Amino acid sequence: MLSFTHHTSPESYLKDYPPSAITPLPASEWQRLQPDRHFIAHGRNGVEARCSVWRESLPPDTIGQPAAIGHFLSTDAQTGSQLLDAVADWLRDQKTTHAIGPIDANTWNRYRLVTSRGTRPPFILEPWTDPSAPAAWEGAGFRPLAEFHSGSFPPQIDDDPRLKRMLQRWETIGLRIRNLDLNDFSAELQRIHAVSLKSFAGNFLYTPVSVETFTQMYQPIRDKIVPRFTWIAETDAQTAGYLFALPDYLQLEREGKVDAVVIKTLAIVPDRAFAGLGQWLTRLAHRAAHQEGYQTVIHALMHSGSRIKHFGRSEMDVFRRYTLYQRIL
């Protein structure tokens, strides 16, 4: 028999935390994302599931104000479902219309479940989740809200005749494309942040984030960034776009070598003057991967239906799928 508690501070849930298979949510993670409640399922084996709730971290939609449920861990699907049911009951008492998850506060942080694992091991910065998690969410009445995928190509290096005209057009407006300067990292992050706010403003579940928070997200991986695989496009007036990629260091840890580059983020300012810029930056990433001897380029965590599936001459190998869930309360 499970019992459930919910907490409003890390001091509360960490006090007398019993030896358990479920590790406690670090106090630093609580302080970083400030959930409204942290829920714990207690059983015979100590803590058997946990999650956090944010009631207003996501934008309102046509149904109402969704709550976000994240920081989810469970020993098994049945226990996870019971915890999510208890959270749903609490949210219903708070007059919440619906809940979305798993999502740690908003889409700038970890979200989605791996729902089709394939055979490829996890790659760097991939949100890897337990195989039992989808059954836990579905068992609690959550249904798919959005689908995502990751896929790979061999480096695509064939020329596209349309790009020559684009390059000529960008030259007339003074557009320059360069690699990221790690010696000016803080200023570079401010430029990238400004592009991200404009580029992602119309995206699914978009919420703005401060430049300070954005900087904190990227500082921990500074030493892993390879400027050769990150591009910034700019004019004298503004930063127009960027592409962020890096070698798959998880493969390096597993195998002692790495042959894949992961394209993590592509963002372009919505302006007709920059039409085609995303395709050109993607092509630059593929060319750099080829020149450096990499065999694979991974396009990570794309929303279902992304046109990048047909980039270049090869068909993308979609090797992983992810799902974000919703429950009407």
General description of the model:
The chain has 329 residues and is an alpha+beta fold. The protein folds into 2 domains: 145 residues, 3-Layer(aba) Sandwich (Aminopeptidase), CATH 3.40.630; 140 residues, Gcn5-related N-acetyltransferase (GNAT) (Aminopeptidase, 3-Layer(aba) Sandwich). The protein contains 9 helices and 13 strands. Strands 1, 2, 3, 4, 5, 6, 7, 8, 9, 10, 11, 12 and 13 form a 13-stranded mixed sheet that branches. Helix 3 links the parallel strand 4 and strand 5. The longest helix is centred in the first third of the chain and has 17 residues. The protein is elongated and about 65 Å long.
> Beta fraction of the residues?
25-35%
CATH superfamily of the largest domain: Gcn5-related N-acetyltransferase (GNAT)
Q: What fold name goes in the CATH topology slot of the largest domain?
A: Aminopeptidase
What is the terminal separation in angstroms?
A: 24 Å
Name the helix and strand elements from N-terminus to C-terminus, one letter apiece.
EHHEEEHEEHEHEHHEEHEHEE
Rough outline: elongated
Q: Evaluate the radius of gyration.
A: 21 Å
Classified by CATH, the class of the largest domain is Alpha Beta
Structural class: alpha+beta
Oligomer description: single chain
How many domains? The number is 2
**What is the count of DSSP helices, taking H or I runs of 4+ residues?**
9
Low-confidence stretches: none
Average residue-wise pLDDT: 94
Largest sheet: 13 strands, mixed
The percent range for helix content is 25-40%
